[in-house]
Amino acid sequence: MYGTVVRSAPLIPHLYRVVLGGEGLDDFADPTFADSYVNMFFLSEGAAYAPPFDTEAVRDLPREQRPYPRRISVRSWDQSARELTVDIAVHGEVGYAGRWALHARAGDRVQLRGPAGDFSPPEDAEAYLMVGDESALPAIAACLEAVPAGRSVVALVEVDGPDDELTLDSPGDLQVAYVHRAGRTEPERLLVDALGGLRLPPGRLSAFVHGEASSIRAVRRHLLGRALVDPSMLSCSPYWHRGHTDEEWRSIKKDWVRAMTAEIP
Ligand SMILES: Cc1cc2nc3c(=O)[nH]c(=O)nc-3n(C[C@H](O)[C@H](O)[C@H](O)COP(=O)(O)OP(=O)(O)OC[C@H]3O[C@@H](n4cnc5c(N)ncnc54)[C@H](O)[C@@H]3O)c2cc1C
Fold it and tell me: Do residues 207 and 127 lie in contact, with contact meaning Cβ atoms separated by under 8 Å?
């Protein structure tokens, strides 16, 4: 499966929207979850092949010829137009996903697999909390749209600065708090410190906490350590780890998540 870029543009300085379409999406299945994601396979400049290709067949190629897979959330899927919208964090001229989004032009193709996912705002929650950074903003935005009408929902989002504050919508009773990373030391403390200053809505809380590994670990410790959320109502996973490429991160992620979970099971 592959997508062809229909259009692309920055949503905010550090998050680029890319809309994919074309016959390569003929078999794309309706995403089942609000946080559904796809695997996008990016190629290095010297790759001797182009989408569409067989992702299994290229597995045994030398490293520099193999694709670089990245998980990216489904921001939306328009079934009638058969268009898939993804929002990708751009963090300078680094990273296969970030650089691809920065330079994506109509007609470019990208290999895909998916969708998969596992979270939608649960019906049995009385209030919702969504926490993350630019990498989780697409999933947070999709989850906010799936919150039952009228229920309290708080979104706490870390971005670079005021220009990166994306307008968010929800049928719920939404309160949005942005925190800015620019010029701050200890970026992994930003979200948890801001969370400490927020008034959380009363009632049985569902929390969706995703983004940079050290930041979300601190938030998880705060939420569970203070019994602000029941562990069964917490969806928490580290999407990326500062200072690590996705290849480096995936090689240690399992052990890292095990250690995080062991802190407060
Ligand atoms: C289920 C899931 C859903 C995800 N959804 C999205 C999504 O919708 N949009 C999205 O942008 N990301 C999303 N991510 C995160 C994304 O897969 C990773 O951030 C990925 O590492 C980005 O790849 P890259 O090729 O740009 O950078 P890499 O090649 O992996 O890394 C290059 C350098 O950039 C740093 N870096 C990586 N990501 C960021 C970032 N966000 N900000 C600053 N520096 C960074 C790395 O630490 C490294 O130093 C998701 C991850 C998961 C697991």
Answer: no
Q: Say how far apart CA 63 and CA 122 lie, in whole Å.
A: 41
> Which residue's CA is the closest to the ligand 1 atom numbered 4?
72
Between strands 83-89 and 127-132, the pairing is unpaired
Q: For all residues of the chain together, what is the average pLDDT? A: 96
- Nearest CA, atom 18, ligand 1: 240
**Which of 68, 91, 209 for mutating ligand 1's site (highest number of atoms within 8 Å of CB)?**
91
Whether this prediction's pTM lies above 0.85 is answered by: yes
Q: What is the pLDDT of residue 265?
A: 86
Domains of the chain, start order:
2-116 (2.40.30.10), 127-263 (3.40.50.80)
> Residue range 27-55: average pLDDT?
95
Cβ of 41 closer than 6 Å to ligand 1, yes or no, is no
